[in-house]
Design brief:
two-stranded parallel ribbon; Rossmann fold; alpha/beta; 12 helices; single chain
């Protein structure tokens, strides 16, 4: 008799991780949360205490090989969704720790999958594996375009993609990585591209907000991104695959117009500065390999996010800094 599915979610106290826990519980699946942080503030905005009681919370360090192995064995893990990582500013500030978490931590999970016969690993990569826009032809960057990371964060993510390929070639361990671009939604409160989400929160709180950059990018709703990771875990492909998350390239002025459409009294302005990011990335490979691509229309996603923020502000699961 096959074992009941048990999903290990690393980086589960983070933005996409919290949404992944949310959807696993809603789907009636058993989730094991694995994070060094015990701060459930993002999870609290998405789930009631009763819903959280269905989750097995484990406080753990991805760099601790023995603890990762012990967790996988103790909880009889069958599926791995690896989202834990240090982001660009933290890697830049401490490259050694960044390598330990982002590279060694990922290797620990692949080793655990190999040791305990978990046939498939899903993990987060990043568009940071690509180079600057002038490195590529105009338009969407192809999924198989040359990689040319210019940050250590991007280098570490590329290293993981290459390692996953070796685990497939040498051990038959399949994997799928997703590369998000600008992910927005409730719980997105860190990083440079969190600015549009912070503007949505400000609109919910009836406060002004100035977005520090403009330009065009692709946007993925956090809820959609989490569901795509779960789908990738549930439907393994034979190989080591990496997919770009795409969407319609959208100018920041359009994002602000949608915020104002949702809340006409919103006071949102934009800095006249474009980041050195490409227009977007080709997601045709993702669409070719999966029957469903989760893509809430931007207008609807922004409406949902602002309304969700308003509920959190009313019930006290979210408070604004003084």
């Amino acid at each position: 008799m096959a074992a009941s599915p048990v999903y290990l979610v690393t980086g589960s106290m983070g933005f996409i991780g919290a949404w992944t826990l949310h959807h696993l519980v809603r789907q009636g699946k058993t989730a094991v949360s694995y994070d060094l942080s015990t701060n459930r503030s993002r999870v609290d905005m998405l789930m009631t205490p009763a819903e959280q009681s269905a989750i097995r919370f484990v406080t753990g360090d991805l760099t601790n090989t023995d603890h990762v192995m012990q967790t996988v064995e103790t909880h009889a893990i069958t599926h791995i969704i690896h989202l834990g990582a240090l982001q660009v500013p933290f890697v830049r500030a401490n490259p050694v720790l960044g390598a330990q978490v982002n590279v060694v931590g990922t290797a620990n999970l692949f080793e655990a999958a190999k040791k305990y016969a978990i046939p498939h690993v899903v993990y987060a990569s990043s568009i940071a594996v690509y180079g600057p826009p002038d490195r590529y032809p105009h338009g969407l960057i192809a999924h198989d375009a040359p990689l040319d990371p210019h940050t250590l964060y991007g280098v570490y993510k590329q290293s993981n993609e290459l390692a996953a390929r070796v685990y497939w070639e040498e051990y038959g361990l399949t994997s799928a990585a997703l590369r998000p671009y600008i992910v927005y939604g409730v719980g997105r409160d860190q990083g440079m591209t969190s600015e549009p989400t912070k503007a949505m929160l400000a609109a919910a709180a009836r406060k002004p907000y100035h977005i520090a950059f403009g330009g065009v990018g692709q946007y993925q709703l956090g809820s959609d991104t989490a569901q795509q990771f779960i789908l990738a875990a549930d439907q393994p492909l034979q190989g080591a695959y990496v997919f770009n998350l795409g969407g319609v390239p959208t100018d920041m002025t359009e994002i602000v117009a949608m915020i104002r459409s949702a809340r006409p009294d919103a006071q949102v302005t934009i800095e006249d500065k474009r980041l050195p990011f490409p227009l977007g990335f080709d997601d045709s490979a993702l669409r070719e390999h999966y029957p469903t691509v989760y893509e809430t229309p931007l207008h609807d996603g922004i409406q949902q996010t602002i309304a969700h923020f308003e509920r959190c502000l009313r019930d006290g699961t979210l408070t604004l800094p003084a």
